[in-house]
Amino acid sequence: FSFSSDGGEQQSRPKQVxxxxxxxxxxxxxxxxxxxxxxACRFGLRKLHPHTHLYTTEALPALPLPxxxxxxxxxxxxxxxxxxxxxxxxxxxLSTRNFPDSTEKMRQKLGLAEGGxxxxxxxxxxxxxxSGAHHGKAYFRLPS
Length: 144
Fold this sequence. Notes:
The protein is an alpha+beta fold. The protein is built from five helices and eight strands, in the order H-E-H-H-E-E-E-H-E-H-E-E-E. The strands form two sheets. A six-stranded antiparallel beta sheet has the order 2-3-1-4-8-7. Strands 5-6 form a two-stranded parallel sheet. Strand 7 (about 125) and strand 8 (about 135-144) form a beta hairpin. The longest helix has 8 residues, at about 35-45.
């Protein structure tokens, strides 16, 4: 992956869409270089929200992506009963991005212990477009 800071980064803005089959988080080098837009456009990714560096796609490109790739498995309500029905072992490795609760607070609220081979990423869903408020739903993810 190569990147030139010649001002083209501001011109290459990816389109925003709703979550698709994969969630992509660019690696730190891309973020620190400010190459997140170039990264998204080069790999044909769509941005989830204007204020986050998380991307989505229906199909992964043939080239390896420099970052973490998560396969979207389910959309689970951010409620103890719903999560425990999805995770009967009551164990999970949690990660959040732009979510109002910390992973520790989530563990307490959802009754989950640390552990398990799977990582679940929680992202907020706005209650109304542009409102900035969040309702009690979160995306539930598993790495590919």
